[in-house]
Amino acid sequence: MERKHSFIAVDIQNDFASEGGQWYTPKPAVDFMKKVLFPYLREKGIKINEIISDYRQPRPGDRGDGCHPGEWGYESLVPDDIRKSQWIKCMNSPIWTRDNIGDANREPGLPHPDPNGFGQWLEENVGSPEKTTPVLIGLTADCCVLSTGQELNWRGYYPLILREAVDHASGKIEDRDKVLDNPVSNWAKTVDWEELKQEL
Predict the structure, then answer these.
(1) Which of 7, 11, 136, 200 matches a 20 to 30 Å C-alpha distance to 151?
(2) Digits of tens for pLDDT over the chain (200 positions)?
(3) Comparing C-alpha atoms, which of 138, 133, 144, 53 is closest to residue 101?
(4) In the CATH scheme, what is the homologous superfamily, with its name and number, of domain 4-197?
């Protein structure tokens, strides 16, 4: 059976992707997504499922504090008109959530894993492993995109990572390509834009 492609964007939020963001470095993938990918998907009527982060403290094991709901750094760069659904995580792996996640008016709870909740979101929005090839885009190839690719692989998916639409935390092309070659290749296949367009 031929699988349909389903896009999943990871952490394309101002704190990571925009100048002035807490963890910002210049990243070529952001320009590619804004100028090439998003307009193409809009024209073709293809929607994006999105994973974003609520990185408020407390987060034992990670001292970072950012992506606060209700603030500029939390806001996504994915245009509203091409977003299909949104899952909010609070650690690198998408299965980690918390009470009051994404709620700017309530104190966040401690991170805890919710593998069943994430699985239900995937099934309802992305599709089943038997019918869907997830295409990962976003930030970063060495951290949250990698964690998402691992989780999808372990659930039976065969994820693709769109090379031009991901970056390393450093923003350097050579660092991106190095991690896409290894270790990312253990869990996901990298595809170039011209190649992917032939499959969409």
Answers:
(1) 200
(2) 568 999 999 999 999 999 999 999 999 999 999 999 999 999 999 999 999 999 999 999 899 999 999 999 999 999 999 999 999 999 999 999 999 999 999 999 999 999 999 999 999 999 999 999 999 999 999 999 999 999 999 999 999 999 999 999 999 999 999 999 999 999 999 999 999 999 98
(3) 53
(4) Isochorismatase-like (3.40.50.850)
